[in-house]
Amino acid sequence: MPRPRLAVVSLCALVLAGGLTGCAGTVAMTPAADANDPDCAAVTVRLPDTVAGQERRWTDAQATGAWGAPATTVLLRCGVPEPGPSALPCETVGGTDWIVDDSEAPNYRFTTYGTSPAVEVYLDGELVPGRTALDALASAVLLLPRTDRSCSERPST
What we know:
- The protein has helices spanning 3-17, 38-44, 130-141, and strands at residues 50-51, 54-57, 64-67, 74-80, 90-93, 96-104, 107-113, 118-124.
- The chain is of the alpha+beta class.
- The chain has an eight-stranded antiparallel beta sheet with strand order 1-2-3-4-8-7-6-5.
- A hairpin with a 2-residue loop joins strand 1 (50-51) and strand 2 (54-57).
- It is globular, with a radius of gyration of 19 Å.
- The model is unreliable at 1-22 (pLDDT under 50).
């Protein structure tokens, strides 16, 4: 077998065996309780290929998204419980209100406020700016049905 052909066969065997470490594998995730909501399917199929310069990766759970390699820097789950009033900060980004949980800084959890179902985005703030990631996800998340709640209407506690 000529050398170039042997190299191609060897490369294909490595790929099929999962032997290439440069390729990012599937990200193991747990689906949210309401991941089977049809509105989550509409969000999932519209998720971008890149978020803040991070490439999208395959996930093994319904209504999820992941970006970044070798470490996953942005994770998304649709169908999480809708949050109630909270003392946490709330910001409007890309036309959607997001509750910001910084209790694990520099990792941040953003949860949509006033959407049904809700979406949760968890990211590494040292690698990806939160606003940049949420802007990249805005067109998909804007498809979610809106409730009558918004950041400005939340009672302060």
